[in-house]
Amino acid sequence: EDVPSQTFDNKDYFCGKETFPVYESIFTEEGETIRKIAIEIEKPPQIEIHVWTIRKGILHHFYVEKLSKREFEGLPYFKLITRTTLNQWKIFSEGEAQISQMCESRVCRTELEDLVKVLYLEKSEKGHC
User: Fold this and answer.
1) Residue 29 domain-assigned?
2) d(C-alpha 104, C-alpha 88), whole Å
3) Distance between CA atoms of 31 and 51, rounded to whole angstroms?
4) Comparing 45 with 64, which gets the higher pLDDT?
5) What whole-number distance in Å separates Cα of residue 9 and Cα of residue 119?
6) What is the CA radius of gyration of the chain?
7) Which intervals hold domain Chordin-like protein 1/2 C-terminal (predicted)?
8) Helices (DSSP H) in 1-129: which residue ranges?
9) pTM to 2 decimals?
């Protein structure tokens, strides 16, 4: 008998864990950079956008907004950068809260870059999950 191939409803899986698309938008205007990191969540179906306002390397403002998928589709400038698991997103969110306090008074470019790297999943070899 033929063994049926596994299908995952066109979703990517990482070591048996479901992954979710992550988007990024970077917009610079008058010495201010607005960087947005967004994740598409299925339950409830929404987009969670983390917005960082950076002036001269210092994180001046940070907030989270939630939109419907329809509202998100109308936004310009977002590009898909990776897929991540909910566990990695949780680590990202917790790290973001710490950085937002730590970086109110000093330059934190590398900390913000390192935090985004948390979302990228390393491809594991079979059997190492």
Assistant:
1) yes
2) 24
3) 16
4) 64
5) 22
6) 17
7) 10-129
8) 69-73, 86-102, 109-117
9) 0.80
Q: What is the C-alpha to C-alpha distance for residues 89 and 19, in angstroms, rounded to an integer?
A: 10
Domain tally for the chain?
1
Domain encompassing residue 43:
19-119
For residue 27, the one-letter residue type is F
Contact predicate 67/49, CB 8 Å: yes
- SS3 state at 122: coil
Q: Per residue in 11-55, pLDDT tens?
A: 566 777 889 999 999 999 888 999 999 999 887 889 999 999 988
Tell which residue, 113, 59, 115, has the closest CA to residue 92.
115
Cα distances (angstroms) measured from residue 121 to each of 3, 15, 83: 29, 10, 7
In a domain, 11, yes or no: no
